[in-house]
Amino acid sequence: MRIYIKPGLCAYLMLLACGALHEAQLNGAESAIPGVSSIATHPIHPVLIRNEHGSLIRVILSVDEKSDITVRALTFALEGTDDLSDIDSLTLCATDDKVDFSPAKPLGKPVPPAASLTFNTEQKLRPGANVFWLSCRLKETAKLSHRVAAVCSSIETTAGPLTPRDESAGFRQRIGIAVRKHQDDGVHTYRIPALTLSSKGTLLCVYDMRRRASRDLQEDIDIGLSRSHDGGQTWDPVSVIMDMGEFGGLPQEQNGCSDPGIIVDQQTGEIFCFAVWMNGKPGKHQWRGDGSEAGHEVGKSAQLLVVRSTDDGRTWTKPENLTRTLKQEAWWLLAPAPQSGINLPDGTLVMPMQGRDEKGVPFATIMISRDHGATWTLSQPAYSGGNECQAAQLGDESIMLNIRNDRERFRAVFVTKDLGQTWQPHATHRDTLIEPNCNGSLFRADYDADGKRQHLLLFANPHTQKTRTHHTIQVSFDDGLTWPKKHHILLDEGRGAGYPSFARVDDQHVGIVYEGSQAQLTFEKFSIAELIGK
Known about the structure:
By secondary structure, the protein is mainly beta. It is built from four helices and 37 strands. The strands form eight sheets. Strands 2, 8, 12, 35, 36 and 37 form a six-stranded mixed sheet that branches. Strands 21, 22, 23, 24, 25 and 26 form a six-stranded antiparallel sheet that branches. A hairpin with a 7-residue loop joins strand 29 and strand 30.
């Protein structure tokens, strides 16, 4: 029986788990060398500007018994790469019998790009799998609209030549940028991104700066901001826009701020960033037990803060506390949903929110302002048992709220026609969009087609009900009733923390920041034409 392996690491891990990898490799390609087979696959993830390594192709030589065969050379072609000048260098690495990429064992020095590359080596083959990886380092000027492709065209061994079967022939990897990585500026972990576009065309990405560890609150966490003036191609140095210091005489690790939500008033240009602040309660968590309690008192209940900017995000006000104004005293918590808000055509600002009610049960809702952020009003909870959420306006002017659902591994979806005073479940509520219990991003993108103004909905999350892998974009042309599989875009099959956030980049493009496998915060850009399938 011939076994065909699907492209990507996940297929290999599944095969390893059932003990079938060796058989699959031996049957994977016709070979002129008895007892030796070769197969090539491509990992599904972007290659990132600012990363030292971006794995492109994995070549596995499988030997069924002890032999005296040595690999002398591997030759690769970069046909299908949009622009070789995007690439700074390429490296060939060996990972012995491990299928995951590692740069720990390079075979020679990095080489400059060329249409065809031959790496000379002397690697004796051992019984079982012998794994080689080609990786690249991108230039900072690599274009986000370009792709990179690599094919292993031949392998020279002491027993003769091999041509590996390419199980994902024609696959081309997208170029993205690592906006934030582990230990950038000495910060251990960057998490919880929210992306938006200012009225002046500047991309703004806010996030947690988890300085000491990857843990949620309570910890030493500040809210950071990255700005891009060129559609995400480059990003300014990080700015800290919310830091409660040593408030109340307590150390930084007992004054953490987290879960930023951001909204731009497109009429006035003012930008609002909300976050939740915990004071005291070391070792606690705002979503568990008494990490946040009923009432309004600092040190008992987590606090809802806002900072504002009127100069395109360059400078920000000191934090303003909205807890007593908006949080019901009986509730245990009120916090922003870590996402971007939306502007309605009449100027109303809509910000997704979350909290814990008088029983400590999570809920999702929205917060609105009709006076350009001078005052805010909290709507009625849309759903009990869910929390992180994203709002989008539909074609009939109602508002859809797409919600992380803690009850099961399907998204909760509600709609309101009166700005959250009443809510009705959508037709896809709890039965269409799958999730592993993770934040997601919902976004409306308007565009012109055939002389008419049209719109689509985009949804992104880890498209699985197990772990936070398979980071995927889905597209709906009917206000979220259906999400055709042919319009799914798999961004990254690997495991990451999972949180995504969409924003408009310009009239022709949409951007996304997400927590993928290649960087803590990855940015990619997509044309509307690609999303609608043209």
